[in-house]
Design goal:
The chain is mainly alpha-helical and 266 residues long. 60% of the residues lie in helices and 4% in strands. The longest helix is centred in the middle third of the chain and has 25 residues.
C-alpha cells in the first residue's frame, strides 16, 4: 500500500488535528481476533504483511453499529482530506487504525465505491478517486437544475414560520464554519440543505440531492480548490440570507442565492 510522506506509518492517513475526525468506538478485542482470519487480506487477497499493527484502545461496542460508525468515520476522513485522492488503502490496515476487523471496513469501503468515492484495486484495497474542477462544476450545475425550481416552488407555498424554524440550523453552519474544520462544516451544511428540501415532501428528491451534495464535498486531486475558514464562513452566511429571502418570498433573490451558492461551493 502506498503511504503519504507525512502520514501514519501503518495506514497512510496523515496525522490529524485533535477533533478533526470522530474515530468510532473500538470493537471488542475478542471479536476482532475471532474475525481476523476469516476477514483478513490473506483470504480476500489483500497484502497485509507490510502493514505493522498499531496500538489499539480496546473497549466494547455494539457490533451491529460498527459498519455505520466506520462508514461515517471514513466519509469524514474523506472530506477532511485524510483519505487522499489517488492513494490506495487496504481494509485490514484501516481496520487496525479503528480497532476493528477488516470486515466492517471492507463493507463501508464498498459502500463508498457504490457512491463513486473510491474504486476497488484487486489484491490491494481501495483507491480514492481523483476528481478535477470540471466534475465539481458539473455537480454544481446538476444541483442547481434540481434544487432551484424546488426552492422557488417552496418559496411560494411554505409559510414564513416554517422557514423561521430552520434558523437554528443556519446558525449552526456559521459556528461550524468558524471552527475552520471542513468535515464539521460539511456535516452541518448538509443538515441545513436536507431540512430545506424535506419541506418538499419528496423523499426521493432528498436522497438524490443528499448524494450530489456529499459528492460535491469530496476534495479535488492535489488539494486544489481546498476551502479555507474564510470561504466556509462566507458560504455559511448565505444560509441566513436565503432564509430571509424565503420568508420574504422574494423569488428573484432566492433564485440568485441558490444558484450562486452552488457555484461558490464548487
Amino acid at each position: 500500500m502506498e503511504q503519504g510522506a507525512q502520514g501514519s506509518a501503518q495506514t497512510g492517513i496523515p496525522d490529524r488535528p485533535a477533533g478533526a475526525v470522530r474515530v468510532p468506538p473500538q470493537a471488542r478485542a475478542a471479536d476482532v481476533d475471532r474475525e481476523r482470519y476469516a476477514a483478513s487480506g490473506a483470504v480476500r487477497g489483500e497484502h497485509t504483511h507490510s502493514e505493522p499493527t498499531p496500538h489499539r484502545t480496546r473497549s466494547a461496542v455494539q457490533r451491529s453499529s460498527v459498519r455505520g460508525q466506520i462508514l461515517d468515520a471514513l466519509r469524514t476522513a474523506l472530506v477532511a482530506g485524510e483519505l487522499r485522492p489517488g492513494e490506495v488503502y487496504s481494509a485490514p490496515a484501516l481496520g487496525e487504525r479503528f480497532g476493528v476487523s477488516a470486515t466492517p471496513v471492507r463493507e463501508a469501503m464498498q459502500q463508498l465505491a457504490a457512491e463513486g468515492a473510491v474504486e476497488v484495486v484487486p489484491n490491494r484495497g481501495f483507491r480514492v478517486l481523483e476528481r478535477g474542477a470540471r466534475e465539481l462544476a458539473e455537480l454544481a450545475e446538476v444541483r442547481a437544475l434540481i434544487e432551484v425550481p424546488v426552492m422557488l416552488r417552496l418559496a411560494r407555498t411554505v409559510p414564513a414560520e416554517r422557514w423561521a424554524e430552520l434558523r437554528p440550523l443556519a446558525e449552526a453552519t456559521v459556528r461550524a464554519a468558524s471552527s475552520g474544520c471542513r468535515a464539521t462544516y460539511a456535516e452541518s451544511d448538509r443538515a441545513f440543505h436536507r431540512a430545506l428540501l424535506t419541506l418538499a415532501g419528496n423523499e426521493q428528491l432528498v436522497q438524490i440531492a443528499e448524494d450530489l451534495h456529499r459528492r460535491s464535498q469530496w476534495p479535488l486531486a492535489g488539494g486544489t480548490g481546498a476551502r479555507g475558514r474564510a470561504d466556509l464562513v462566507a458560504d455559511a452566511a448565505e444560509h441566513a440570507a436565503l432564509l430571509d429571502a424565503l420568508i420574504a418570498r422574494d423569488l428573484e433573490v432566492v433564485r440568485s442565492l441558490v444558484g450562486e451558492h452552488f457555484t461558490g461551493a464548487a
